[in-house]
Amino acid sequence: MAVVVRNRFYPKFALVLALFVIIAFSHSYYLRFLSDQPPLITLLHLHGLVFTGWLALFVVQTRLIAANRVDLHMKLGIAGVVLAACVVAIGLATAFHAAAGQQLRPGGLTPTQFVAVPLTSIVLFTAFVGLAVALRRRAGLHKRFMVMAMISILGPAVGRLLGLLEAREFAYLAQPATAAAFVTWCLVQDWRRNHVIHPVYVIGGLVIVASWPLRLMVAGSEWWQPLGEWAARVGGGI
What we know:
Elements: H1 9-24, H2 26-30, H3 42-66, H4 70-99, H5 111-114, H6 116-134, H7 139-152, H8 155-164, H9 171-194, H10 199-219, H11 224-236
Helix pairs in contact: 1-3, 1-8, 3-4, 4-6, 4-11, 6-7, 6-10, 7-10, 8-9, 9-10
């Protein structure tokens, strides 16, 4: 019987991405108990727990495929769909809650303006995960859409890392640059392994990177303001 040789890139990618997120949130979440910061509200704790669970599942799923445990990978995939839905629902609640706040965001955006930024990430994540689930029997597409889903929600981690480095003024340059760096890693790996560049990485990567200047344009537009105010009203009741 022929032995299936799995691509080891995805477990490495998942681990690097997980470490990136954990380091970025080390001060504000994972190691928060070591500082004198005020306690987080229940919603933010729930948001952190659910996203950490999703991150852990992503790492585990890539390692199961690398170990040729496709059967277990598929079984966990059912739980993954439920967990992804929780990520979206709690992510929306967290974004709306933040919109009701008072703190100015990078670039001088008000909370009602800035809410366009996380909402865009949630929409992209939902779209990529939805495509990955719909195309789960086509492994080449499924795994790439899942990678795009993870890259699409790195914005908060990048923001926290810039806060640790006291470089928040570079936020709107660092956000697309970080996404582009992860996408480029995927493109290089595809080229080295297959001598072709997969369109999911090209198109998905362009969408994620281009979304950053576009979402900032939307946030500062007049037509977005009523939507941002509505989000703040919803968030005020959470």
